[in-house]
Every structure is written in structure tokens, then in C-alpha cells.
Specification:
Elements lengths: L1 E3 L12 E3 L5 E3 L7 H6 L7 E3 L5 H4 L2 H8 L3 E3 L9 E2 L5 E4 L2 E7 L8 E5 L4 E5 L18 H14 L6 E4 L9 H14 L1
Parallel strand pairs: 3-4, 4-5, 5-6, 10-11
Antiparallel strand pairs: 1-2, 2-3, 7-8, 8-9, 9-10
Length: 192
């Protein structure tokens, strides 16, 4: 079960995916809203926080979540405040009831990760790609358009064409032909 706890929130935040199951995990914590209450409305406890990347809108609530649930945060770069454990490129992590492979996908930010489960047919895309061919900004510090294109291509090569769901860092999740949206993002990033 995957729920976006930031849905309907009127504040500058990222999406926050609560992945419930054998290992209950929060993918990103969002910012500027009471995510702790939103988690407690759905589950009693968390096993971990997993970060797609550490831009403020994705980690603004990190300390509050860590304090409230006494959990550690996992991300790509442990030199960044709040990231307790490193997730290496190609490492497998359990989110909910499924195993996901972590893919290091810089371009939007150097520590960006996507998480993909072939078994579940799910991609957590962070701010790499969004619906309708949109893609992550490269005009921020650490942004790099060429690296972003390489990262999108890498994800595109890895995911199945029958991908069932893509959960993005902003905007709605995509459950209708999400592979096509990633493919379109790869084309659009080259044209911009």
C-alpha cells in the first residue's frame, strides 16, 4: 500500500510516500506541514525513512519524523545532515512488502536516487521525471542537464514497459502508461 501523505497540502512541499507493509517506510518527509500527524493517522510506527534526495522541500520534516518515530534516515550521501546510512547505487532496499533497487540518478541534485521494483511494477522517481514529459530542474546548485539526461536514460533502460505505477516528487502519481511518461521526459530533456 502506497499513500501520498502530502496530497491536498497547500504548502511548498514534496510528495511524501508512505509505503506500508512488512517494512513500513516513508519515502521523503516533505516540508511545511505536520507529516507526523499524517503518518500517525495511518500507521502506528515507521521502520525507516528513505530519501530520494536532500532538497529542503523533501527533507524539511526529517528531524520531526526521526524524533517522533525514533527512526534512521537512509540516503545516498551521509555527509549531509540528517542522513544516517548510505544507500549505494544498485543496492537493494525493502519498501513495504517489496525489494527495490536504488539507482543513483544525479542531474537534479548529486545525491538523487530513484527506487525501482520490477516485482511490484513501481518506480519512485523523486524529482528526476514527472508526468507528461516533465523533468527535474537543472538550474539549481548541483543541477546538470547532461547528467540528468543520462540518469533518465538509465532509468528508462532499467524499467519494464509494463511499469504499473510511477510515484514522483511533485504532482500526481502516474498509473496510466508510466513508461511512456519517462520516455517522453527523456525526449523533452534533450529539447529544452
Amino acid at each position: 500500500m502506497i499513500a501520498n501523505l502530502a496530497q491536498g497540502v497547500q504548502a511548498f512541499t514534496s510528495n511524501v510516500a508512505l509505503v506500508d507493509g512488512e517494512r513500513t517506510v516513508l519515502v521523503d518527509t516533505g516540508a511545511n506541514f505536520d507529516v507526523v500527524a499524517a503518518v500517525r493517522d495511518r500507521v502506528d510506527d515507521l521502520d525507516a525513512v528513505v530519501l530520494t534526495h536532500t532538497h529542503r522541500d523533501h527533507v524539511g520534516n526529517l528531524e520531526a519524523v526521526k524524533d517522533a518515530f525514533d527512526v534512521d534516515a537512509w540516503g545516498y550521501d551521509t555527509t549531509i545532515d540528517g542522513v544516517d546510512h548510505a544507500i549505494e547505487d544498485e543496492e537493494t532496499v525493502q519498501l513495504g512488502d517489496h525489494e527495490y533497487v536504488a539507482l543513483h540518478t544525479p542531474g537534479h541534485k548529486n545525491d538523487h536516487l530513484c527506487f525501482y521494483s520490477a516485482d511490484a511494477g513501481v518506480l519512485f522517481a523523486g524529482d528526476l521525471v514527472f508526468q507528461n514529459g516533465s523533468f527535474g530542474r537543472t538550474d539549481l546548485e548541483e543541477g546538470d542537464r547532461d547528467a540528468l539526461i543520462e540518469s533518465i536514460d538509465r532509468v528508462l533502460e532499467r524499467i519494464d514497459e509494463d511499469l504499473a505505477e510511477m510515484h514522483t516528487g511533485h504532482g500526481p502519481s502516474v498509473s496510466s502508461n508510466p513508461y511512456d511518461h519517462v520516455e517522453l521526459s527523456a525526449r523533452m530533456a534533450r529539447q529544452a
